[in-house]
Amino acid sequence: MSAAPVRVVLVDDQDLLRRSLSMVLDAHPGTTVVGEAGDGAEAIDVVTATSPDVVLMDVRMPHVDGIEATRRLCADPTLAGTRVLMLSMFELDEYVYLALRAGASGFLLKDTDPADLLTAIERTARGESLFAPSILTRLVQHFVQEAPPGAPPAPSALTAREIDVLRLVGRGRSNDEIAGDLTISVKTVKTHITHLLDKLAARDRAQLVIAAYESGLVGARSG
After folding, report:
1. What CATH topology corresponds to 148-214?
2. Engineered SS bond to 129: which of 37, 49, 205, 219, CB 3.0-4.6 Å?
3. Residue 148 — very low, low, confident or very high, per pLDDT cuts 50/70/90?
4. Mean pLDDT, range 80-100, rounded to an integer
């Protein structure tokens, strides 16, 4: 029995882009569009009404922007199963940082290849975090430059192996890549990530990325 398609809400103030994305997603058997919105305020209403798996959220919109809409949606306990994937024309550091702080699960550029976007949506629905390579590099640079001296050590509650996994999550590795790097099974990687989410009280994998940076596990020397 095949898995149900990922339910997606599209949020962008450009009608043409929304229509284009809708055509791509509805043509793919693994995704289906269940709602659209032209600004952040409308997005909150649509997402609340449909409870999608993934929200493709533009950053810069009138009235309520994507960052604020993401913050409100991710703070809503009734939408705990909904993930937000930010889309933007820009790579500005502040957008990436603010999006993660708001609770977004990833950040991609609007010129992302359609096939890569579909993969990103499916991975985001599974709880993974997705970042365009150039954006991940900028994110690392942001934390290296902006983090105060004497970054706190990794939480003492973590085992040595969990710290290894957290460091690789922070570097943007997928579960398969982590398994290869550490010579363990993918199932074991998933178990470690579940433990990390629980011990660090993290909503999803994107928050583990933040924890890896803020604890100093990823930085100028370790990235």
Report:
1. Arc Repressor Mutant, subunit A (1.10.10)
2. 205
3. very low
4. 79
pLDDT of 145 > 60? The answer is no
Please tell me the distance from the alpha carbon of residue 192 to that of residue 204, in angstroms, as a whole number: 13
What pLDDT score does 112 carry? 85
Cα distances (angstroms) measured from residue 145 to each of 16, 104, 188, 219: 38, 22, 34, 9
Query: What whole-number distance in Å separates Cα of residue 106 and Cα of residue 121?
Result: 10
Cβ proximity of 162 and 193 under 8 Å: no
Give dist(CA 121, CA 85) in Å, integer: 8
Average pLDDT value over all residues in the chain? 83
CATH number 3.40.50.2300 is the correct assignment for the domain at 6-140? yes
Q: Is 173 helix (H, G, I), strand (E, B) or coil?
A: coil
Range list of β-strands (E), 42-159: 54-58, 83-88, 106-109, 130-131
Q: What is the pLDDT of residues 9-55, one digit of tens each?
A: 999 999 999 999 999 999 999 999 999 999 999 999 999 999 999 99
CATH 3.40.50.2300 in the chain: give the residue spans. Answer: 6-140
Radius of gyration of the chain (CA): 17
d(CA 202, CA 206): 8
- Contact criterion met (CB below 8 Å) for 36 and 26: no
